[in-house]
Design the sequence.
């Protein structure tokens, strides 16, 4: 085997190009083909993943341009936790209303009033919990006790 380095110009029809380099080393040619196939397969998988993610986001937000941060719930008095966010982020209910909280994340979460007037306790991933809204009208900001960057607001009136 020669120590001479084959310079690839990227033009297979030119002397010293990819075709010449691969013809001189069949193992390199096979490795190059496998690498190209792996890259194309990864690109295909990524494209399908993005398309499925976009379709899922569109379905959960009620439209194609809604983005993934908004969460839509069609169930009355239900808060859905998904992607480390509450949906809806603000909910208005009557005093003493029972609220169902559905955790669609894998991580456990809570729905805990900042003033401690309500707390669902820990809701495991894929599970649901319940809580009762305060009987005193007002605005009640809440957080996840384990993930304080998750915030929402319960309005009782």
Sequence:
């Amino acid at each position: 085997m020669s120590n001479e380095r084959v310079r690839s110009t990227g033009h297979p029809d030119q002397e010293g190009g990819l075709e010449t380099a691969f013809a001189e080393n069949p193992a390199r040619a096979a490795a190059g083909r496998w690498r190209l196939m792996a890259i194309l397969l990864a690109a295909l998988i990524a494209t399908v993943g993005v398309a499925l993610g976009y379709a899922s986001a569109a379905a959960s937000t009620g439209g194609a341009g809604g983005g993934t941060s908004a969460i839509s719930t069609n169930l009355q008095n239900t808060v859905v936790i998904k992607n480390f966010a509450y949906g809806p982020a603000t909910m208005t209910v009557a005093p003493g209303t029972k609220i169902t909280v559905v955790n669609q994340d894998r991580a456990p979460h809570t729905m805990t009033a900042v003033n401690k007037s309500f707390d669902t306790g820990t809701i495991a991933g894929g599970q649901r919990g319940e809580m009762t809204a305060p009987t005193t009208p007002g605005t009640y900001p809440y957080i996840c006790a384990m993930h304080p960057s998750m915030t929402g607001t319960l309005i009782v009136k």
